[in-house]
Design brief:
Radius of gyration: 18 Å
Number of domains: 1
Number of strands: 0
Structural class: mainly alpha
Distance between the termini: 22 Å
Length: 278
């Protein structure tokens, strides 16, 4: 993969990771549609993709720095007793919400690996993602709680929704936002909880995959372009996060519908193209 394709991937990933349209699905579909000379099944592709996610996670960490600082100081007992309890509870709920993805990820990583290089499957799942987003709006209740007020059961449900994103084309952020909506929090609160959840998950994936780029003999040459691409992905992701948080704050009714229509059209047309041997 040359530097140009690495940067194009960075822009694609940074723009789609946080929007509820599946960055993984786009990473599979777009290169196939444009006939980029990239082997998605190559051993260096997944670590490279995770490297881009590191850029995204760093952007999230910076954007939500006040939230993470509040959780850290609350965990250390540096705030009022009531606020310490709130922040420790939020940390605990984020952990509970992450557990299903850890279990399912280790269990299904190999059985699902073949889907990551299958553009037709990713296209079909991207179209199915539209149905998931519309389901979330149908399940949406009156927003009466904040993310900090989710119960442990609520957090577990959100975490189970997140597991749907192991299918390429199903959005992680979309699935978890749908989970939050089903538990009675607003689009904005669901998005905030989703983005806070995503940060440690992405960094954990990096711990497993990025060393392969650094130490692998055949992958060493890819580390430079991957590092540059990760920086670009982080910049795009920060801008995406700022836009989405403002968007969800101002559009709490059927906010996911435009993204659902996009997924249906993009996934459907891509599936037709691949079905006819594009």
């Amino acid at each position: 993969m040359d530097t140009l394709h690495a940067l194009l991937f960075a822009i694609l990933q940074g723009a789609t990771e946080l929007f509820p349209v599946s960055s993984l699905g786009h990473a599979v579909i777009v290169p196939a549609l444009l006939h980029w000379p990239i082997n998605l099944a190559a051993p260096g592709f997944l670590p490279f993709l995770v490297m881009l996610h590191v850029g995204t996670a760093t952007a999230l960490l910076i954007y939500f720095r006040s939230d993470w600082l509040a959780m850290l100081t609350g965990f250390l007992g540096r705030r009022s007793a009531a606020e310490n309890a709130v922040q420790r509870g939020l940390i605990a709920r984020l952990i509970v919400a992450t557990i299903p993805a850890v279990i399912v990820g280790f269990t299904l990583k190999k059985p699902l690996a073949h889907l990551f290089a299958n553009p037709l499957a990713a296209s079909l799942f991207l179209a199915a993602n539209a149905g998931l987003l519309w389901l979330g709006e149908a399940l949406r209740r009156a927003a009466t709680r904040r993310a900090e007020q989710l119960s442990y059961l609520d957090a577990l449900v959100v975490g189970l929704y997140q597991c749907l994103a192991f299918l390429p084309g199903i959005s992680r952020s979309g699935a978890t936002i749908v989970g939050g909506l089903s538990r009675g929090i607003s689009h904005e609160s669901a998005a905030r909880f989703t983005f806070l959840m995503g940060t440690p998950v992405i960094f954990a994936a990096a711990v497993l995959e990025v060393p392969k780029l650094v130490h692998g003999h055949l992958l060493h040459a890819l580390f430079g372009p991957a590092l540059l691409a990760a920086m670009a992905a982080g910049i795009v992701a920060y801008a995406s996060t700022a836009f989405l948080m403002r968007y969800f704050r101002n559009h709490d009714v059927w906010a996911l519908s435009p993204f659902a229509w996009y997924c249906l059209v993009a996934g459907g047309l891509s599936a037709i193209a691949f079905g006819f041997g594009w």
